Amino acid sequence: MSTSTRERLLKWLQDAYAMEQQADAMLTALAGRLEHYTSLRNRVLGHAAETRQQADDVRGCIERLGGAVPAARSMAASAAGSLQALGNALMSDEVVKGMGASYAFEYLEAATYRALVIAAEAAGETDIAEVCNRILQQELAMAEWLRANHGGIVQEFLQREPDAPGLARR
Ligand SMILES: [Fe+2]
Questions:
Q1: Burial of 15 (0-12, 13-18, 19+ CB in 10 A)
Q2: Tens digit of pLDDT for each residue in 26-46?
Q3: Are 20 and 61 in contact (CB under 8 A)?
Q4: Per residue in 129-150, pLDDT tens?
């Protein structure tokens, strides 16, 4: 294993840890605005809990490599930052916008962990590869749930709020 592969693995784990901090904040904020959409709210809350466990597991991987755990924001967080800003600025069609943002974000997370699995295997860190693969499956499961339920939620929104300003302007 080269030093650079190990260093890259550590850096990507630190990025992933920061990403999970943002994910938790975004999911929790989104869940608070979904009182009329029970199934989506429950799935989002469930994934927020899953996300906190993922952050703990990634922290363990960082410590295993002897790295520093990021304090708060870092580079990976900036990708999520725009989504969080969207979460903060959601208007009457927040459920549609928030679900779309979450859908995109879960695939960003999945891609992050797929890269981490490959990097961990390249570095000979099989335990870390296993952790990242387990998280990858959770991200894909959340992405698939959002994909499968997206159309139904949009239809429910249109029936519930036919005169929503966000749509009336189109
Ligand atoms: Fe996720």
A1: buried
A2: 898 889 888 889 999 999 999
A3: no
A4: 999 999 999 999 999 999 999 9
Give the pLDDT confidence score for residue 127 in this predicted structure: 98
* C-beta of residue 96 within 8 angstroms of C-beta of residue 161: no
Separation of CA 162 and ligand 1 centre (Å): 30
Has residue 9 been placed in a domain?
A: yes
State which residues form the domain around 130.
3-161
Q: How many angstroms is it from 137 CA to the middle of ligand 1?
A: 10
DSSP secondary structure letters along 137-149: HHHHHHHHHHHHH
Ligand 1 centroid – CA 48 distance (Å): 8
Residue 168 lies in a domain: no
CATH for 134: 1.20.1260.10
Is residue 166 situated within a structural domain? Answer: no
Tokens of 86: 């969207």
Number of domains comprising the chain = 1
- Residue 68 in domain: yes
